[in-house]
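Tokens as discussed.
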């Protein structure tokens, strides 16, 4: 397999094309795929698009390289990359590397990131335990293998491990002879850092990438969009810069690029920060309709979490709970959105359950941990009406970081005021300075009612008497009266009519009583 001689690869391909035999062209491309891919991408693409479908299916790397594969994956039957049995037995170690790479990329394009990760781990294991001549050369494809493993991990939502792969790809790329290798690794590193909330690191990666050479045509769009999306995510979290301008020219929400869920995340966060949840829901709908998305992917996590957050903003918590039910184990973003929804609706036990799960998740980034701290403070206030000093100080430390502007804006004014009241004079001054440019909202938080109180509340519209309710529920009249007093206190009212009106507005009637 030729991995290092681009001139020979070009000449061999030209000779095969002149001969006009598709099988010869296919074998020539496969045996010279790396130098063609890195140095002669236009000639490579021109040769692949002329090959018949049967040959593309026989050689998975060719099917993955075909420009229509990613587009058709959205509507046609998913491509299952299985090599011809005899071909696989005759492959060299380097050829097997590219076969596994092609299988990983094919499943990633199909939206099956869970299976793509299986091949990513398989390729990782080969790189550790199996020798291959091409990987021993500094100008070989090793950097690219690590780059694609990292990209698959990023697509699966494991940004921490992805960063390690991108760092390896960048170091190897320095020696590879491909001047754009470092920039490709830096652009994806910036994206991973932006998602994790390590925004200073993301900015450093973007600054370094800006001074590096342009990439080849095959990678230009993905690299440019990675950089622009990373910059947009930074701007959204800091509430600085023109997010629309940063996202213009990058992949749209219906793009086939790996970057589309990251662009969707930036757009939805920008829409929600401007109080435009309907626009966020429309972007989500277009993205969902345009991609084969399955559980276990960052894309599924973005879609579920952004939908929940947008529905909270529109007041449709019933539909939001349906999204939660349909996506029980999506990812950290969805867990955070579920905790936010539970706090908004007064389902405190559900919020506590989600926050405990997040506390034990070692893969989440600093931004997700900061959001969990803020939501935990909200939970503490909702349960006790108070906030202990350490919780208040933790929230102040988060507020003092300009990277957390977006997160702070989503906190209810009740929590903001309780933080202020809990601090000493010095702490109050620090809090006031850190939050002076943030507009907090008064959120109508649903009270936490017991199952018995919910039962009584839902009986009120039938205008049952206290005695009738006591008989129907097999409790004493005094118990019903006690629960009614508690309901009135929690809803801030004094009559049945007021309780029904407030409960209807808060969507408490016919609510589930599991919490």
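Sequence:
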């Amino acid at each position: 397999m030729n991995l290092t001689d681009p001139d020979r690869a070009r000449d061999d391909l030209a000779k095969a094309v002149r001969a006009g035999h598709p099988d010869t062209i296919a074998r020539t491309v496969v045996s010279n795929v790396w130098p063609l891919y890195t140095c002669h991408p236009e000639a490579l693409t021109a040769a692949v698009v002329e090959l018949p479908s049967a040959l593309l299916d026989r050689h998975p790397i060719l099917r993955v390289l075909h420009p229509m594969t990613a587009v058709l994956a959205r509507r046609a039957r998913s491509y299952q990359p299985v090599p011809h049995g005899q071909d696989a037995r005759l492959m060299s170690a380097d050829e097997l590397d590219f076969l596994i790479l092609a299988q990983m990329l094919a499943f990633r394009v199909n939206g099956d990131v869970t299976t793509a990760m299986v091949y990513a781990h398989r390729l990782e294991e080969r790189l550790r335990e199996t020798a291959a001549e091409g990987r021993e050369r500094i100008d070989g494809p090793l950097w690219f293998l690590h780059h694609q493993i990292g990209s698959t991990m990023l697509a699966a939502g494991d940004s921490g491990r992805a960063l390690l792969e991108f760092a390896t790809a960048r170091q190897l790329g320095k020696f590879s002879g491909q001047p754009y290798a470092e920039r490709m690794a830096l652009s994806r590193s910036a994206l991973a850092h932006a998602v994790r909330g390590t925004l200073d690191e993301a900015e450093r990666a973007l600054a370094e990438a800006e001074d590096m050479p342009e990439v080849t045509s095959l990678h230009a769009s993905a690299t440019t969009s990675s950089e622009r999306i990373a910059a947009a995510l930074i701007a959204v979290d800091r509430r600085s810069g023109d997010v629309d301008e940063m996202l213009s020219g990058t992949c749209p929400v219906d793009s086939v690029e790996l970057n589309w869920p990251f662009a969707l995340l930036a757009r939805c966060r920008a829409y929600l920060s401007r109080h435009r949840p309907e626009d966020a829901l429309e972007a989500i709908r277009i993205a969902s309709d345009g991609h084969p998305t399955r559980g276990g992917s960052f894309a599924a996590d973005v879609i579920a979490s952004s939908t929940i957050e947008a529905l909270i903003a529109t007041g449709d918590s019933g539909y939001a709970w349906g999204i939660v039910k349909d996506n029980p184990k999506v990812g950290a973003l969805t867990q955070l959105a579920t905790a936010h929804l539970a706090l908004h609706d007064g389902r405190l036990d559900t919020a506590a359950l989600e926050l405990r799960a997040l506390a034990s998740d070692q893969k989440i980034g600093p931004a997700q941990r900061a959001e969990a701290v803020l939501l935990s403070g909200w939970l503490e206030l909702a349960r006790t009406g108070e906030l202990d000093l350490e919780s208040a100080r933790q929230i102040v430390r988060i507020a003092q970081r300009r990277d957390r502007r977006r997160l702070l804006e989503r906190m209810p004014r009740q929590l903001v005021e309780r933080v202020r009241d809990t601090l000493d004079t010095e702490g109050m001054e620090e809090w006031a300075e850190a939050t002076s440019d943030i507009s907090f909202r008064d959120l109508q938080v649903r009270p936490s009612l017991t199952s018995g109180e919910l039962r009584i509340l839902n009986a009120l519209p039938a205008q049952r008497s206290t005695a009738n309710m006591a008989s129907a529920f097999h409790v004493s009249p005094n118990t019903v009266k006690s629960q009614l007093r508690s309901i009135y206190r929690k809803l801030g009212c004094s009559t049945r009519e007021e309780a029904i009106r407030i409960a209807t507005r808060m969507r408490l009637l016919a609510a589930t009583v599991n919490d």
